[in-house]
Amino acid sequence: MLIPFGGSSVTGARGYEECGRELLTQAPDISTVVVALGSGGTMAGLVGALGAERVLGVHCGAVPDPAGTVAALVSGLSATHQAPEALRVRLDQVGDGYAALTEPVMAALTLTARTEGLVLDPVYTGRAMAGLAAAVEDGDIRPGRRTVFLHSGGLPGLFGHQAALTRAEAALTADD
């Protein structure tokens, strides 16, 4: 069976459906899983296992209709209709477009690296972390509720993103 790049098919989403079941086994009281929403497969699988209310997808600008894309994949997983409006999707981290580096994303990359030792990429996981910070700030995610940030990879994206490398180098030089 062929899984397309990005896992953007019902078959690809099934892997993240299994991931969602594993998360429930480890943390049954999970309130929110925050994930980058690129082509939709990761979020769809998690929604399939956890339900729409527990998954917060942060749109990265990869598809024109992120909620519709995820809803179609979720419907393919369960053969029941998933209304796009029932999904928790943040649209506020795209900025000027898919590959554009924004100030909130740069702040999330820097803070996460410095405080947690996690390296995020500027297009997907960096946007997801910026979305998590914004969700805490606006009260969508509340203190005391179990929240999981799903780091789905993307490290090569950091080293291939010239604006992020230039900003990181300037930050390192400023710290010296």
Please provide a written account of the structure.
The protein has 176 residues and is α/β, with parallel strands linked by helices. It has one domain: Rossmann fold (3-Layer(aba) Sandwich). It has helices at residues 10-26, 41-50, 66-78, 103-116, 125-137, 155-159, 162-175, and strands at residues 32-37, 55-59, 88-90, 147-149. The chain has a four-stranded parallel β-sheet, with helices on both faces. β2 (55-59), α3 (66-78) and β3 (88-90) form a beta-alpha-beta unit. The mean pLDDT is 89.
SSE inventory with pairings:
Elements: H1 10-26, E1 32-37, H2 41-50, E2 55-59, H3 66-78, E3 88-90, H4 103-116, H5 125-137, E4 147-149, H6 155-159, H7 162-175
Helix pairs in contact: 1-2, 1-3, 2-3, 4-5
pLDDT under 50 segments (min length 5)? none
- Averaged pLDDT: 89
Structural class: alpha/beta
CATH class: Alpha Beta
Distance between the termini: 51 Å
Helical residues, percent: 40-55%
Number of domains: 1
The helix count comes to 7
Q: What can be said about the biggest beta sheet?
A: 4 strands, parallel
CATH fold topology: Rossmann fold
Order of secondary-structure elements:
HEHEHEHHEHH
Total count of strands:
4
